[in-house]
Amino acid sequence: MSMRVRDGGQSEGRPVMGRIGVEPKSDIILRESGQTSVGSFLKREFGEPLQEGKQMVTPGVGALSGERWEWSGIDWSHCQRIVKRLQARIVKATQESRWGRVKALQWLLTHSFAGKALAVKRVTENKGKYTSGVDKVIWSTPASKSQALRSLKRHGYQPLPLRRVYIPKSNGKMRPLGIPAMIDRAQQALHLQALEPVAETLADPHSYGFRPKRCTADAIEQCFKLLSRQHAPQYIFEGDIKSCFDQISHEWMCANIPTDTATLRKWLRAGYIENGDLFPTDAGTPQGGIISPTAANMTLDGLQELLKTAFPKNTRHGQKAKVNLVRYCDDFVITGSSKELLENEVKPMVEAFLAERGLTLSTEKTKITHIQEGFDFLGQNIRKHGEKLFIKPSRKNVSAFLDKVREIVKGNKQAKQANLIQQLNAVIRGWADYHRHVVAKAIFHRIDCEIWKALWQWAKRRHPSKNKQWIKRRYFHCRGTRHWVFSAITTDSSTRQERWVTLLYVSDTPIQRHCKIRATVNPFDPNWDFYLEQRAKRSGRRT
Questions:
Q1: Which three-class secondary structure state does DSSP give residue 460?
Q2: Which of 88, 197, 208, 524 could staple 214 via S-S, CB 3.0–4.6 A?
Q3: What is the spatial distance between Cα 510 and Cα 321, in angstroms, rounded to a whole number?
Q4: Which of 54, 191, 17, 20 is nearest to 110 (CA)?
Q5: With helix as H, strand as E and coil as C, how does 395-413 read?
Q6: Which of 281, 308, 59, 333 lies closest to 160, judged by CA?
Q7: DSSP 3-state of 426
Q8: Nearest to 431 by CA among 412, 454, 448
């Protein structure tokens, strides 16, 4: 069956390139038959394959190749609509398993002006916009950003080595990070726009790490739903993958991740520079790369389907086993009806799944626990007392937070009170918001007490010769009906008027039950737009 289009792309059969700013020839024949390559798809869809050097732009978004591209003149909302439309088509093609069409649409997106513009915008407006790679180049001016748009080409592209840095881990060890150059970050952001719709369509339903519209609260709520029931599973397999990002097999990723394989292989084998020496990378995806979290997630996707196939819910064996998976990137928990089941059946299955991808379980962090003993997951402690399940901030997480608060207080011995309050408020607000969905009110009150003790010592140290009443009048005030409020007067930098700044109380944060996102939601599928809009309205956030 074929359909002839003569109206310049206004019918339902409008070709892809008309939508992104390249007008195809008239009398285009659209076929339903599948294609085997990008070239054959473009030839069938548009009459002739597109050349690599052609620049695809949308009218009103950018200029044609050879003309000057003005960064300030880009219509960003139009660019977002173009990319979103292409991503929706990638989702549909993935759902239909039309992999040739997926590859062709990815090629169109990564060669479109809108995709390139949004990629450059992302890397020049995020938190790392002033962090350079080995070339010490950053894009901070409109002229440099416009030049970056021209430089985003596949032909002749060769990524630079990563700049190796180390950050401390919670266990005292150092975590290696590889910082790509700006051009490599932009290339990764560009290809991520084409890969993420595929990743979201194929992802495990109960995987919540580094995925759009999902968060740790969703993973914790899923644990609550699985373990709070009367006949819930009693044993938990706590899994942690050893050096997940550093050990993933390059061969497996290149063979199984549906993206530009040649470009992906270049990123994986770019190497890194440490102390002026170049080191090769034989395995793993660099922590610090924009595309790395999605690549790691796609590597681990399939574990839930494996367990579902081994323990089907519609059989007596599967119902008795009570095997369920909740995963947040490389941290996961698997429930089971008995310790023997998890040890003898589930664990070997997980180990074989990971070995195929070049990964192993961490012997230090992997263990099997009874729900009455409780376990820590994503900063929360999940434990059952009798028939009631309680989820509270873990002792380790609370201790780390208080250590951070005390470190800030000790590091600002001579600072102004208002400056100290502003630093503490940012940390307090973030920690309290993270734990506001669990049973945390009693812990919140205890933390307020510990913070007060640290601030009282801070104030006494500044005035060793003053008595307690003088220190209270100087640093602690009456605000509303509350006494002993750590607050100060400061001058607003914008209005030049004086105002009070007050230390936040952790216990003032209301406890609210989190509404978990539906497991099958795909933010790139237009069918879920209404659901996500209603969800954003209920949570008081914008989409």
A1: helix
A2: 208
A3: 38
A4: 191
A5: HHHHHHHHHHHHHHHHCCC
A6: 281
A7: helix
A8: 448
Query: Helical H runs in 23-98?
Result: 38-46, 76-95
* Residue appearing with tokens 């019918």: 11
Beta partners for 45?
A: none
Distance between CA atoms of 57 and 54, rounded to whole angstroms? 10
Calpha distance 217→434 (Å, rounded):
8
Determine contact, residues 336/237, Cβ cutoff 8 Å.
yes
Tokens of 97: 């398993």
> What's phi and psi for 524, nearest 5 deg?
-95, -5
State the DSSP code for 50: P
Q: Which residue has the tokens 């590597």?
A: 299
In the three-class reduction of DSSP (H, G, I as helix; E, B as strand; rest coil), residue 148 is classed as: helix
Q: How many residues does the chain have?
A: 543
Please, what is the end-to-end C-alpha distance for the chain in angstroms?
40
162 close to 273: Cβ distance less than 8 angstroms: yes
- For residue 375, CA distances in Å to 12, 155, 360, 383 come to 53, 51, 21, 7
Distance from C-alpha of 224 to C-alpha of 319, rounded to nearest angstrom: 19
Q: Which among 51, 53, 62 has a CA at the least distance from the CA of 21?
A: 62
Cβ atoms of residues 292 and 245 within 8 Å = yes
| DSSP bridge partners of 404 | none
Give the tens place of pLDDT for each residue, 67-104. Answer: 446 888 899 999 999 999 999 999 999 999 999 999 99
| The amino acid at 115 | G
Strand boundaries in 188-249, DSSP class E? 235-240
Identity at 49, one-letter amino acid code: P
Check residue 2 and give its pLDDT. Answer: 40
Angle at CA 104, nearest 5°, toward 99 and 106?
95
Rounded to whole angstroms, the Cα distance separating 517 from 129 reads 31
Encode pLDDT of 333-349 as tens digits: 999 999 999 999 999 99
Q: What is the CA radius of gyration of the chain?
A: 27
Q: What pLDDT sits at residue 498?
A: 86
Determine contact, residues 119/193, Cβ cutoff 8 Å: yes
Give yes or no for a contact between 18 and 58, defined as CB atoms under 8 angstroms apart. no
Tens digits of residue pLDDT in 283-337: 888 888 899 999 999 999 999 999 999 999 999 999 999 999 999 999 999 999 9
**The dihedral sign for the CA sequence 180, 186, 190, 192:** positive
Closest CA to 61 of 49, 72, 75: 75
- Residues β-bridged to residue 333: 238, 326
Concatenate the DSSP letters of all residues of 308-342 into one string.
Answer: HHHS-TTSHHHHHHT-EEEEETTEEEEEES-HHHI
Helix (H) or strand (E) holding 198: helix 182-202
* DSSP reduced 3-state for 39: helix
Q: Are 212 and 532 in contact (CB under 8 A)?
A: no
